[in-house]
Design a protein that fits this description.
This protein is an all-alpha fold. It is 73% helix and 0% strand. It starts with a helix and ends in a 15-residue tail after the last helix.
């Protein structure tokens, strides 16, 4: 299992700097775009294309890291309805199993979209960036979702569940 922990650490070390750089890039591009429209009274041609591509990767990689850390949004009303930890655990297992099923469907959908983009060869109008560049972000993230949800399901079944938002989330 040490191999999985090492692989997980490598993935995080790759994704986190990308998120920082892309986040700063999007903020800078948005600022430049607003400045050029408001102050210079002229838009920058193609700026939206670069921003869209960057935002897609930013969102999807961020969602993958949130899935890894279990810090994504969750509506856990079971703890309000019941005080029984066994009920909480059962609900958590069912919830994670359903999420895993949806994530597997997301992988197939994202692959279909990505392969469609490859086949069609569509590109953005200004810079001719292939659409599959942004569509691939969904495929990459969906694979990471399945990996982390599989981990979570195994840990919940074995009673070693990672608490939501735990920064030390690791693959066991």
């Amino acid at each position: 299992m040490q191999f999985l922990k090492t692989l997980d650490a490598i993935v995080v070390r790759i994704i986190q700097p990308i998120l920082i750089v892309v986040g700063l890039l999007v903020a800078a591009l948005l600022t430049v775009g607003i400045f050029s429209r408001v102050v210079l009274k002229t838009p920058i041609f193609g700026l939206e294309e670069i921003m869209l591509l960057s935002i897609m990767w930013f969102y999807m990689l961020g969602a993958a890291l949130a899935s890894r850390d279990r810090s994504h949004l969750a509506a856990d009303f079971v703890r309000v309805l019941s005080k029984n930890p066994k009920v909480w655990r059962a609900a958590s297992i069912v919830s994670t199993a359903i999420s895993l099923g949806v994530a597997i469907m997301f992988v197939t959908w994202a692959w279909s979209l990505f392969s469609f983009g490859l086949e069609r060869g569509q590109a953005t109008p200004v810079f001719a960036i292939p659409w599959w560049v942004s569509q691939s972000s969904m495929f990459v993230a969906s694979i990471l979702f399945v990996i982390y949800l599989t981990r979570d399901l195994i840990l919940e079944i074995t009673g070693k569940a990672i608490q939501p938002g735990d920064p030390s989330a690791e693959v066991e």
